[in-house]
Amino acid sequence: xxxxxxxxxxxxxxxxxxxxxxxxxxxxxxxxxxxxxxxxxxxxxxxxxxxxxxxxxxxxxxxxxxxxxxxxxxxxxxxxxxxxxxxxxxxxxxxxxxxxxxxxxxxxxxxxxxxxxxxxxxxxxxxxxxxxxxxxxxxxxxxxxxxxxxxxxxxxxxxxxxxxxxxxxxxxxxxxxxxxxxxxxxxxxxxxxxxxxxxxxxxxxxxxxxxxxxxxxxxxxxxxxxxxxxxxxxxxxxxxxxxxxxxxxxxxxxxxxxxxxxxxxxxxxxxxxxxxxxxxxxxxxxxxxxxxxxxxxxxxxxxxxxxxxxxxxxxxxxxxxxxxxxxxxxxxxxxxxxxxxxxxxxxxxxxxxxxxxxxxxxxxxxxxxxxxxxxxxxxxxxxxxxxxxxxxxxxxxxxxxxxxxxxxxxxxxxxxxxx
Length: 419
What we know:
By secondary structure, this protein is an all-alpha fold. It has helices at residues 2-47, 60-76, 79-92, 97-110, 115-126, 131-143, 147-160, 165-177, 181-194, 198-215, 219-232, 237-248, 256-268, 274-291, 295-312, 342-365, 368-378.
């Protein structure tokens, strides 16, 4: 009897050992895999010093650790672990919008239904005055067709952080994209009324005028907006340039009388500097030469420019104060700039006279070509630049904008090379 009991006990012990071995064997692989995952994440977990929320900013090392940890989990590709880590992260990093935006971007590709909730938590609780994430939320709502929600988000942000130009422009752009032009007008008028500086008023005036002329084709109103800005800041030459650009931007419908009115207003301004007026005079001369319909007006413009040049005592002088200390610049298509240095213009005139004298002498001797060739080497070496011999310069005019005379008999004609 005792022997049977001992045998049964040995059999049971052997069976238990076998069962234990099978259980351990079945769990061993899971244990090893878990241990391997823990080892991979352990240094990230150890580096987390503040797993709770606090208003004090996190150290850079802490922020870097969270970013690295998130990148690691996203590379591992386990959605449940990634989402869990994001939720842990935005507890500690609730005041950092880049972590919220990272969470949104991840959720857009995995769980789009969670995106709106993430934006709402960020913008309505933690980041009420952070423009970037609010603008992203508004853009998201607009793409989802929720125009009213997008408008409300931008309006709330504008109230929380007023006088931010980017927010106001986003509000206006939203209304423009969906055809609510009257609402856009209202927003521009509010921006002008709330402008805290002259620069801000001028900026909104120019944007408003462009909107009126390009989007709704309301050129009279656009012109009125710019004229109001000029009345408030009559010494700002950029406003005159912008009004001029507005008038010239009408394509084939440009009204020459309106363009002339802008030039006249600039010349009659008592606040613009003499240099600025001279620049406008040169720009007027260029416009009339290229697009003007009356030779009489062109000649008057030429005479006015000459008088202004003489009155100023030469162009291109260095000046201080607001005008800065830069040398005069060459004229460009849409910007009014200063004339070239008077000494260079005088040198051009002398070189031209010398060339004409040599041409006449050569013609009398029986050949223009023989007389003009030696002159080419000496001519054109003005201020280190090679100039064309046929260019007839008037004072202060550059080679890029100068008129030129017809070639004399026997002279080979070449077109001027513009810079």
